[in-house]
Design a protein that fits this description.
The chain has 6 helices and 4 strands; from the N terminus they run H-H-E-E-H-H-H-H-E-E. It is of the alpha+beta class and 158 residues long. It has a 4-stranded antiparallel beta sheet. It starts with 14 loop residues before the first helix and ends with a strand. The mean pLDDT is 89. Keywords: Membrane, Transmembrane, Transmembrane helix.
């Protein structure tokens, strides 16, 4: 029989083992409570992500960020393009998180065009790329069909 085993063969925790685990539970509980009360997204995983912890008003607007491109096939028309790792090598969130840097230096968008050319060599070359934000108007949780679009940054191939 081992030192920590009782008569039933069950391993019992020592006083130090129980104290250590109880202290960890208290510390994690304090972090989660503090994160919920005063934390923000940067405190994750000790705070709720705002996008999951709040709701939108029933009437208002919803924002959606995307990209539009001009291609060699139709250089005069901007068309929506997928903002996915398969298409440009990064996720939408990665672009959204860098909008201030992209606005300060729109040439950064050229890297998305270069990534697209490497990932999709059979597609028409991108001559221009812009980041757009669509404001979708919602009334009683239903889209009205009204969409306002703002161009946040624009790049053209040299």
């Amino acid at each position: 029989m081992n030192a920590g085993e009782g008569q039933s063969g069950v391993l019992r925790l020592s006083r130090l083992g129980r104290a250590w685990r109880a202290g960890l539970v208290v510390a994690l509980t304090a972090l989660f409570c503090a994160g919920s009360l005063v934390g923000n997204d940067h405190w994750w995983p000790f705070s709720p992500w705002r996008m999951f912890a709040t709701s939108q008003a029933a009437t208002g607007s919803v924002w959606s960020t995307g990209i539009e491109v001009r291609t060699a096939d139709d250089p005069n028309t901007w068309v929506p393009a997928r903002l996915t790792p398969e298409n440009v090598g990064v996720n939408r969130a990665e672009v959204e998180g860098r909008i201030p840097q992209i606005q300060a230096d729109p040439a950064r968008l050229g890297t998305l065009a270069a990534s697209h050319a490497r990932l999709r060599p059979g597609s028409a070359a991108w001559l221009g790329l812009r980041v757009v934000r669509h404001k979708i108007i919602v009334v009683d949780r239903e889209p009205t069909g009204e969409v306002e679009t703002d161009v946040l940054a624009e790049w053209s191939a040299p």
